[in-house]
Amino acid sequence: MYRKLYLIFLLLITACAAPVTPSITTASPQVATSSTSSQQIDLFTENNIVPAAPACDGMLTLSQTEGPYYKTGSPERNSNYQSGMPGKRLLVVGYVLDQNCQPIPSAWLDFWQADANGVYDNTGYTLRGYQYTDAQGRYFLETVFPGEYPGRTQHIHVKVQPPNGNILTSQLYFPNETGNSSDGIFDPSLVVKLEDRGDYFVAYFNFAVQK
Ligand code: FE
Question: How far apart are CA 104 and CA 108, in angstroms?
Answer without folding.
Answer: 10
